[in-house]
Amino acid sequence: MKKARQAIRMAREANSDASIVARVLKVGWDSLVQTHRLLADIPLDAASEPVMTKQLSVQRYSTALLVRLRRIARNEPGALDVGDDDVDDEN
Predict the structure, then answer these.
(1) pLDDT of residue 91
(2) How confident is the model over 23-41, as a mean pLDDT?
(3) Which of 16, 44, 69, 81 has the largest count of CB atoms under 10 Å?
(4) Among 16-20, 21-25, 39-43, 64-68, which stretch is predicted with the lowest mean pLDDT?
(5) Are 64 and 85 in contact (CB under 8 A)?
């Protein structure tokens, strides 16, 4: 998901160039797909308290990314201007 965050920064710096925005959406969507596949592959036997807590954190981060991607897809004003304070650097 770091690649998606970096792509959003690049698009913001490029002043919303249409080709870069399309790339942001692709990178972001691919990141969400990969994340959900990884989360789904965790077996029940490994679902300890720390694992579930980490999974919640990743789910929150991916939800924030999805909201941001939806705003970008809708061409909402300021969609690329959202700060990075709502994400943590572990993901």
Answers:
(1) 43
(2) 93
(3) 69
(4) 16-20
(5) no
54: left (phi over 0), alpha (psi -120 to 50) or beta: alpha
Q: How far is the C-alpha of 28 from the C-alpha of 63, rounded, in Å?
A: 11
**Euclidean distance between CA atoms 39 and 31, whole angstroms:** 12
For residues 68 and 79, is the Cβ–Cβ distance under 8 A? yes
How far from 63 is each of 13, 78, 84, 88, CA to CA, in Å?
23, 18, 14, 13
Residue 4 has pLDDT above 90, yes or no: no
Q: What DSSP line would sit under 5-68, residue for residue?
A: HHHHHHHHHTTS-HHHHHHHHHHHHHHHHHHHHHHHTS-GGG--HHHHHHHHHHHHHHHHHHHH
